[in-house]
């Protein structure tokens, strides 16, 4: 996009500026309130929840057991969901791959 095109859209007399005339300014939606005191407590609770999560190896083992033992009991949707999570965790734990790479491989 050229400078002239940008000015025609966003400049003081641009089409976007004219379209926004009469609307509430965006700064009214942004508050300058201080962070609440209990914010630290919320973050601490989140850390505790994260620590209570089973490690990846244990989750993989549990999912593998579920998939084998409950294969005929689970609906197709439940089985596919658990299988997708299992495949993702396997790839995530292999060679310390990044999350995005693990997601891509699990989806294919």
Q: Kindly state the mean pLDDT as a whole number?
A: 76
Tell me roughly what share of residues is in helical segments.
55-70%
- Distance from first to last alpha carbon: 36 Å
**What share of the residues does DSSP label as strand, in percent?**
under 5%
Structural class: mainly alpha
Uncertain stretches of 5 or more adjacent residues: none
Order of helices and strands: HHHHHH
Apparent shape: elongated
Largest sheet report: none
Radius of gyration: 25 Å
The total of helices stands at: 6
Give a count of the beta strands, DSSP E runs of length 2 or more. 0
What would your notes on this structure say?
This protein is an all-alpha fold and 108 residues long. It has a domain of 52 residues. Helices cover 63% and strands 0% of the residues. The longest helix has 18 residues. 1% of the residues are buried. The model has no long low-confidence stretch (mean pLDDT 76).
Ordered list of secondary-structure elements with their pairings:
Elements: H1 3-10, H2 15-19, H3 39-52, H4 56-69, H5 76-93, H6 99-107
Short characterization:
With 108 residues, the chain is mostly helical. It has helices at residues 3-10, 15-19, 39-52, 56-69, 76-93, 99-107. The chain contains 6 helices and no strands.
Features:
single chain; 108 residues; mainly alpha; elongated
């Amino acid at each position: 996009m050229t400078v002239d095109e940008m000015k025609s859209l966003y400049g003081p007399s641009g089409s976007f500026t004219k379209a926004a005339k009469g609307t509430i300014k965006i700064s009214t939606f942004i508050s300058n309130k201080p962070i609440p005191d209990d914010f630290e407590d919320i973050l601490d609770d989140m850390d505790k929840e994260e620590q209570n999560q089973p490690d990846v190896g244990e989750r993989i083992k549990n999912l593998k057991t579920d998939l084998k033992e409950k294969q005929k009991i689970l609906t197709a949707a439940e089985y596919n969901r658990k299988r997708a999570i299992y495949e993702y965790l396997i790839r995530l734990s292999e060679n310390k791959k990044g999350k995005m790479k693990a997601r891509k491989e699990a989806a294919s």
